[in-house]
Design a protein that fits this description.
- This protein is about 40% helix and about 20% strand.
- By secondary structure, the protein is α/β, with parallel strands linked by helices.
- The strands form two sheets. It has a ten-stranded mixed beta sheet with strand order 2-1-3-12-11-4-5-10-8-9, sandwiched between helices. The chain has a two-stranded antiparallel sheet with strand order 6-7.
- Helix 1 runs parallel beside helix 12 and helix 8 packs parallel to helix 9.
- The chain is globular and about 60 Å long.
- The two termini are about 15 Å apart.
- The protein binds 3-isopropylmalic acid (IPM) and magnesium ion.
Length: about 375
C-alpha cells in the first residue's frame, strides 16, 4: 500500500470543520488498504497570524513544499480585517500558490442532478452540467509589479495593479486546458479582454498559435470575458473547458459555482509542472468557497467542496482514479438519497450538519469499497 504525505492547512472559519470530514475519509482509505496518508497539520491565514504574526510561517511553508499534496480549507474573517496588508489572511494562500508554482487551477463545475433545483437557474439550464474552468493562478494582476498605492502629493493618491503575462505563462496554461479537453469533449473556450487590454491581445495570439501548432484536433473558441460571463448564465452547457487568466478565472468560477447549486459544491486543484525526473507535481487542493465566518462553528457548512477537493487529490496527485470515482459516486448517492446541508436545501424539509453529511459520504464509500 502506498504511503503519501498530506499536509493539512484547515485555516479559518468553516475551514477546520470541513477539513475534519476529509480527515475521516483519508483515515478510512488507510484502513481499507487503498493508501496510507501521513497527515500533518499547519496554520494558515488568520489563525497563523494569531500564532506567528504572519499569514503562514516559514516552517509550514517548508512542510507544504515537502508534502505530496497540500489540502487547504479557507482563510479570512472579520477578526482580521484590520491587519496589515502584507500579512492579511489571503497572503498565506497567495504565497503558497506562488512559491509552490501552482500555475494551473482546475475548477470543475458539475451539477449533480439531485440538487439541480438548488441552483438559482432553471433545472434544464444546469442539469447534467459538466464544465472545467482552467484558471491561470500565478500571474496576471494578482502578482504583477508595480502593485502599490502612491501619494501624488496633491491630496490625491493612486492605486496601481499591473496585469502582465509572458508567452510561456500563456502556453503552459493553454497546454493544461487542451490536454484536459482531449480527455473530455475536446473543446476549449479561451477568454480574455483583447478589445481593451494588451495582455488580452497576447493571450489570444499565443492560445491560437499553440492550438494550431500542437492541438489542431481540439476545437478552440474565443470569447471575451464579459460575454463569457453572460453565456455562463444563459447556456452553460455550450462549454467544455474554459481557459482564462487569474482575475477573470476568479470571477467566472464563482459564477459557475452557482450553476451547480451552491458555492459549497465546488472543489479545485492547483497544480504545478510535472517534474520530469520523478513524474510528480506539486499540488494544493481547496474548495472554491471562502471561510464563511457567519456560519463558522455552527456545523452548518457543506463539506462536499472540501471532500470533492480530496477526490481531486486522489486523482491528480496519487493516481487513485478508482478511489476518486468511488468517492464522487458516494457524494452523488448521498445527494440522491435526499440528504441536504442548509446551502443546498431547496425544498427539503430538513437539513443535516457538516459532520452528518461527511459521515454519510464515508458510509457510502465504505459500502463501495467492501
Ligand atoms: C479564490 C479566492 C482567492 C482568490 C482569495 C481568497 C485570495 O477568491 O481562490 O477564488 O482571489 O484567488
Ligand atoms: Mg475567488
Amino acid at each position: 500500500m502506498p504511503t503519501k504525505k498530506l499536509f493539512l492547512l484547515p485555516g479559518d472559519g468553516i475551514g477546520p470543520e470541513v477539513m475534519a470530514e476529509v480527515e475521516k475519509i483519508a483515515a478510512f482509505l488507510g484502513e481499507a488498504g487503498v493508501a496510507h496518508f501521513e497527515m500533518e497539520k499547519g496554520l494558515v491565514g488568520g489563525s497563523a497570524y494569531d500564532a506567528h504574526g504572519k499569514a503562514i510561517s516559514e516552517g509550514d511553508m517548508a512542510l507544504a513544499k515537502a508534502a505530496d499534496a497540500v489540502l487547504f480549507g479557507a482563510v479570512g474573517g472579520p477578526k482580521w480585517d484590520g491587519v496589515p496588508y502584507d500579512v492579511r489572511p489571503e497572503a498565506g494562500l497567495l504565497r503558497l500558490r506562488k512559491d509552490l508554482e501552482l500555475f494551473a487551477n482546475l475548477r470543475p463545475a458539475v451539477c449533480f442532478p439531485a440538487i439541480a433545483d438548488a441552483s438559482s437557474l432553471k433545472r434544464e439550464i444546469v442539469e447534467g452540467l459538466d464544465i472545467m474552468i482552467v484558471r491561470e493562478l500565478t500571474g496576471g494582476v494578482y502578482f504583477g509589479e508595480p502593485k502599490e498605492i502612491i501619494d501624488l502629493g496633491n491630496g490625491q493618491k493612486r492605486g496601481i495593479d499591473t496585469q502582465v503575462y509572458d508567452t510561456y505563462e500563456i502556453e503552459r496554461i493553454g497546454r493544461v486546458a487542451f490536454d484536459l479537453a482531449k480527455q473530455r469533449s475536446n473543446k476549449v473556450t479561451s477568454s480574455d479582454k483583447r478589445n481593451v487590454m494588451k495582455s488580452g491581445v497576447l493571450w489570444h495570439e499565443v492560445m491560437s498559435a499553440l492550438h494550431k501548432r500542437e492541438y489542431p484536433e481540439v476545437t478552440l473558441e474565443h470569447q471575451l470575458a464579459d460575454a463569457l460571463g453572460m453565456q455562463l448564465v444563459r447556456w452553460p452547457k455550450q462549454f467544455d473547458v474554459i481557459v482564462t487568466d487569474n482575475l477573470f478565472g476568479d470571477m467566472l468560477s464563482d459564477v459557475a459555482a452557482m450553476l451547480t447549486g451552491s458555492l459549497g459544491m465546488l472543489p479545485s486543484a492547483s497544480l504545478g509542472d510535472t517534474d520530469p525526473k520523478t513524474g510528480t507535481r506539486r499540488a494544493l487542493y481547496e474548495p472554491v468557497h471562502g471561510s464563511a465566518p457567519d456560519i463558522a462553528g455552527k456545523g452548518r457548512a457543506n463539506p462536499l467542496a472540501m471532500i470533492g477537493s480530496f477526490a481531486m487529490a486522489l486523482r491528480y496527485s496519487f493516481g487513485l482514479a478508482a478511489a476518486a470515482e468511488q468517492l464522487s459516486r458516494g457524494m452523488a448517492d448521498v445527494l440522491a438519497s435526499g440528504l441536504r446541508t442548509a446551502d443546498i436545501r431547496g425544498d427539503a424539509t430538513s437539513v443535516v450538519s457538516t459532520s452528518e453529511m461527511g459521515e454519510a459520504v464515508l458510509q457510502a464509500l465504505r459500502k463501495a469499497t467492501v
